[in-house]
């Protein structure tokens, strides 16, 4: 089977971070169910910047315990669009190596056209194809995972240490200023 990748970002302290959460196709339903189970009553979704530290710990601990989710991080310093370009290019390259079935990126509406351009360029250079789309978080609970991981990685310290068991890769795409 091939994994599906779900991508979201976080910006903090001059660093722009993209996270690709990887979930095998056979585990998608279970991971979506886990993500939804972490919603509070009346909550349509969770978003890490809006959660309390207690909830953040609870969510991260559940994600890390879930063997079906792995994460890869791509980060750099410089203008967000430049780091995003380099990060997406690296993500696409890695996903092609992993024979990824599908890439889902959290829609940022104003950035979606840039993303499509960067991804198409990377795929053209690799002379291959990869199914990809932009979705809003309410459409895909698996997009909540990279939101949490990117936030926690960017926070550093004990938050980053909590993530270590699920991190497959952390790539610094450099200073693109």
Word description of this protein:
- By secondary structure, the chain is α/β, with parallel strands linked by helices.
- The chain has one domain (about 5-175): Nucleotidyltransferase, domain 5.
- About 40% of the residues lie in helices and about 25% in strands.
- It has 6 helices and 6 strands; from the N terminus they run ββααβαβαβααβ.
- It has helices at about 30-35, 55-65, 80-95, 110-125, 145-155, 155-165, and strands spanning about 5-10, 15-25, 70-75, 100-105, 130-135, 165-175.
- Strands 5-4-1-2-3-6 form a 6-stranded mixed sheet.
- A hairpin with a 2-residue loop joins β1 (about 5-10) and β2.
- α3 packs across α4.
- The chain is globular.
- The termini are far apart.
């Amino acid at each position: 089977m091939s994994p599906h990748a779900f991508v979201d970002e976080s910006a903090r302290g001059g660093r722009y971070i993209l996270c690709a959460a990887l979930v095998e196709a056979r585990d998608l339903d279970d991971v979506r169910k886990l993500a939804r189970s972490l919603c509070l009553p009346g909550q349509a979704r969770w978003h890490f910047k809006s959660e309390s530290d207690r909830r953040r710990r609870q969510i991260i601990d559940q994600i890390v315990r879930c063997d079906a989710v792995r994460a890869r991080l791509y980060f750099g310093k410089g203008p967000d669009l430049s780091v995003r370009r380099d990060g997406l290019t690296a993500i696409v390259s890695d996903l092609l190596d992993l024979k990824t079935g599908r890439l889902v990126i959290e829609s940022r509406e104003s950035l979606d056209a840039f993303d499509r351009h960067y991804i198409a360029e990377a795929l053209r250079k690799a002379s291959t194809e990869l199914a990809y789309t932009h979705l809003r978080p309410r459409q895909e609970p698996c997009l909540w995972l990279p939101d949490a991981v990117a936030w926690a990685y960017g926070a550093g310290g004990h938050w980053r240490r909590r993530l270590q068991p699920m991190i497959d890769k952390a790539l610094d795409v450099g200073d693109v200023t």
